[in-house]
Design a protein that fits this description.
With about 400 residues, this protein is mainly alpha-helical. The protein folds into two domains: about 200 residues, no CATH class; about 140 residues, no CATH class. Helices cover about 50% and strands about 5% of the residues. It contains 13 helices and five strands. A three-stranded antiparallel β-sheet has the order 1-2-5, with no helix packed on it. Strands 3-4 form a two-stranded antiparallel ribbon. Strand 1 and strand 2 form a beta hairpin. The longest helix has about 45 residues. The two termini are about 60 Å apart. It is a lipid-anchor; GPI-anchor. Pfam families: VSG_B. InterPro entries: Trypano_VSG_B_N_dom (IPR025932). This is Variant surface glycoprotein. It comes from Trypanosoma congolense (strain IL3000).
């Protein structure tokens, strides 16, 4: 009963605030669904190097270190006459491998193994087997390196596309050049040039960057003389955060400091849920986010006299609108972005979306190769275990004269 009462109070307060927002002529949470889509996309592209770090975590211990273990075992069990190039690798081996005992890190413990005499028959037999394993491991690692190079290339391409999608710039730098302008990037422009149905054509327009479209969706055109602030994206943001006005208060200018205000806006994003590592980019997540964007595009209650603009409209969902998306004070129906000109005819399309689609294709191939790389790592782990097993077997009997059996000599 108490819970039901609290819910009624919450709903009543929400309704009162909504009515008050309409009376004051201010945007009131209408763009929350669209903002959440942009938040999801931003979360996936904001850290271009995240995937490389994840892959490095997945590949620990590295295949290179596993090959190194096998090479070391081949060197220390073999006679000089049995080694050519392998013997040269001895210079690169840690001193522990040629001292009186060999230390192998195994989880949190280190196994200590006695050194071996390569002249003993069982050691010579073990050396021959380990060298065969080493040659197999070298073939496997060559295949791994080829795939790794391709993954680096593909992920590098995806990172570049992420930066383009975010800021409209291959370097990922957020600035006033992130906004579309009929006069070209960086020119003195109005909000309508970056957000309206009649902007774009064969030049840049709405969709130039995610930064551009977030400001279209969340910010009014009010200057410093206006008392309006925006909660169109679900969180009350100060006028300074989202206004399309110059630092001196001139209305309908480019946002003054997008490099600082854009992170402030995106700091209002809800936490992403439903995925393991929700912000780790993948082809599936990117395509799901773009599908969510498509699902909301054109779904506004568009009752204006120009229904041809409806299919390209995003946001500004309260009542009718004309697609101008000029964000004028007191007109909450026009805090939006309309992609008519950039999507229809010879328009350049939604640039940030095209960049993400390209990145998704590159990540899809990178993910396929990453699975194969993990399989290769498993092969090397099995080969390394085989080499260690052969080495330990060669110690049986031999170690009774000089040192305890390796399994009896462990240190934390």
């Amino acid at each position: 009963m108490v819970l039901q009462t609290l819910l009624r109070i919450h709903n009543l307060l929400f309704l009162c605030l909504a009515v008050f927002g309409v009376m004051m002529g201010m945007p009131h949470d209408e763009n929350i669904p669209q903002f959440k889509v942009f938040c999801t996309i931003f979360g996936l592209i904001k850290d271009p190097d995240q995937r490389i770090r994840f892959l490095n975590e997945q590949l620990a211990p590295t295949p290179e270190s596993l090959l190194s273990e096998i090479e070391k075992l081949a060197v220390i069990t073999s006679k000089t006459d049995d080694l050519t190039e392998e013997r040269q690798k001895l210079q690169k081996i840690d001193q522990n491998w040629t001292a009186e005992e060999i230390v192998r890190e195994d989880g949190l413990k280190a196994k200590k193994f006695p050194a071996v005499d390569p002249d003993l028959p069982q050691v010579r037999l073990a050396a021959k087997k380990i060298r065969r394993i080493m040659r197999k491991a070298e073939d496997v690692i060559r295949e791994f390196r080829g795939k790794a190079q391709e993954v680096v290339r593909l992920d590098g391409g995806a990172r570049t596309e992420f930066k383009k999608a975010l800021s409209g710039d291959a370097n990922g730098k957020i600035s006033q050049s992130s906004f579309a302008s009929r006069g070209g990037a960086g020119a003195s422009t109005r909000r309508q040039d970056a957000c309206s149905y009649n902007a774009g054509g064969t030049t840049e327009g709405p969709g130039k960057s995610l930064v551009n479209d977030v400001f279209c969706l969340c910010g009014s055109a009010g200057g410093s003389s206006s008392s309006e602030y925006s909660s169109a994206c679900g969180q009350t943001m100060t006028e300074t955060d989202v206004r399309w006005a110059s630092s001196t208060g001139t209305d309908n200018a480019l946002p003054a400091n997008p490099e600082t205000t854009f992170p402030t806006i995106m700091g209002k994003c809800p936490n992403q849920v439903g995925w393991d590592r929700p912000n780790l980019p993948s082809a599936a997540k990117l395509r799901r986010a773009l599908a969510d964007f498509d699902a909301l595009l054109g779904k506004t209650n568009f009752a204006g006299s120009n229904p041809d603009r409806k299919a390209y409209h995003f946001g500004g969902g309260h009542g009718s609108t004309d697609g101008s998306c000029d964000g004028k004070t007191g007109d909450h129906q026009k805090v939006c972005v309309n992609y008519l000109k950039v999507m229809a005819g010879n328009g350049p399309g939604i640039s940030w979306k095209a960049a993400i689609e390209k990145a998704a294709g590159e990540l899809e191939e990178s993910e396929r190769l990453s699975v194969e790389m993990n399989n290769t790592k498993t092969q090397l782990e099995l080969l390394a275990e085989s080499a260690w097993g052969i080495y330990e077997g060669a110690l049986t009997g031999y170690s009774e004269q000089s040192a305890p059996h390796p399994k009896e000599s462990k240190s934390n």
